[in-house]
Input
Amino acid sequence: MSTYRTIVVHLDAARRRPQTLDVALWLAESFDAHLVGLFAPAPVRVPTPAVGEGASVLREIEAERRRATLAAQAEQEFREVTARRGSTRTEWRDLPGDPVRAVGLSARYADLVVAGQPDPADAEDARSDFPGDLVLSAGRPVLFVPYAGRFPKLGTRVLVAWNASREAARAVHDALPLLERAQRVDVVAFDPQRGRADHGEHPGADIALYLARHGVKASAAQQRGAGIDIGAQILSRAADIEADLIVMGAYGHSRLRELVLGGATRTLLESMTVPVLMSH
Output
């Protein structure tokens, strides 16, 4: 069976950090993987009433102090939680600078990255474009954990959003360790008439057959939404089948096009209700 041997979990100063760590720990325990806890927050900005030439220096000093405090808190939490769970194959890293570059550096030597969905109501959360930047640059699959809700386990019932793209094919391959363990995998081609010409006669059937050869219990279906956004269709289908994981390719179109016109990747990153594994 396929497996994950090294998992990187991105931790920052956000309120939903414990939920992200819980999911990463469950995955590490399930696959007997080495877990790297990586503290890489968005740049800390500290307002100061000071004015004049020294104001920027004071802000920089205070920001460094605050970041050090946040890093110490995150490390203590990571070590306490992993010790309580009896996890011994763990490692702590604190990398300064841009979080996308920091996570990308560690991702090159890992099988999977786990990260949290930014919470727009949390002032300490990472910038809103972090997930998109990360999935485009990591070079590894990224499992995003929603900021709302708890997910003690995942991968029992999986929805694969299939559009026959390179990105979707990579996501399916990257998710094999989870898919091979799933009780049920639903491969759904959403609005295939709008998609690529290489779906085959029965959209989704070929990738379901590929999965079956890996021992995955997969079924194939099509869904047409009569003009409804595909991202919304994916979320609705996931709710209907009570999926606890969505697997999909990210940014099959250019990111600029999605920013202007919208797209499934953008919809899922903003409105996910269950963990989503994305590859680009």
